[in-house]
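ABC-2 type transport system ATP-binding protein: structure tokens wanted.
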Amino acid sequence: MSTGLRDSVIRARGLGKKYRQRWALQDCDLDLPAGRVVGLVGPNGAGKSTLLNLAAGLLAPSAGSIEVCGGPSAADVAQLARVGFVAQDTPAYARLTVADHLALGRRLNPAWDDAAARERVARLGLDPKQRAGTLSGGQRAQLALTLALAKRPELLILDEPVAALDPLARREFMQLLMEAVAEHELSVVLSSHLVSDVERACDYLVVLVDSRVQVAGDLDELLATHHRLVGARRDPDRLPAHQQVISARHTDRQTTLLVRTEEPIHDPSWSVDGINLEDLVLAYMDRTAPAVRRPRLEVQR
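Answer:
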């Protein structure tokens, strides 16, 4: 099912989730564009799973609001049907067969595409009579993805679905995922700690660190507007105002900065280089970097 003309597939305003005295997610403002594959990255404990569970309707916010596919998260059965969700441990009922899982999906989902589910199971080489508890990790992940796709969602949420898979199973999962995305014109939010998966599959990036969104935007635009500057040691605060310092490193004689700017850098005293996705993600995740002039995050519209 296509998201049509809807601009945002997930819209959060001041979103937060608190467990007792600890905030797992705070002050989250996001507009994730429809029809894109969004990569959600950050260290363990950053709040990625919390954000995805809020979007899937498995958690209720402690603060703020979240809309998914144009309506309140998990407002009713119709709203739940718009979202497919594959959790990190790709849960399955161990004693049920593959065929039992398809039958359960057919009974629980009003827009269930049984023909597509059966065709996908056959293409994957899964035995319909085999119990889920005897499947390999890669097979369970593919079964979970099949169930999520067969409900014909507008939004597919994947919470580190390949974290426990070996490299071959991970590659096969990602390949089949991208084929499904192209075929069904899905909006996807993919949480992963593997930058290579994000680089291969995603065109929009969100970085979460310490329960807060650090940066969000079109991946190509983010890479084009971040630069590494290397030059003689100096105070980063002396840079022009439009050069927003993300990270700074110093030796006795040299300063290395990662800056964000949409304007050309003309200062000849700097050696200026582009960065890759790993450089970008690590710069925003680096908790040991000294305090620098970070940009104020603005909601991407």
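Confidence is low (pLDDT under 50) at residues 1-5, 290-301. The radius of gyration is 21 Å.

Cheers.
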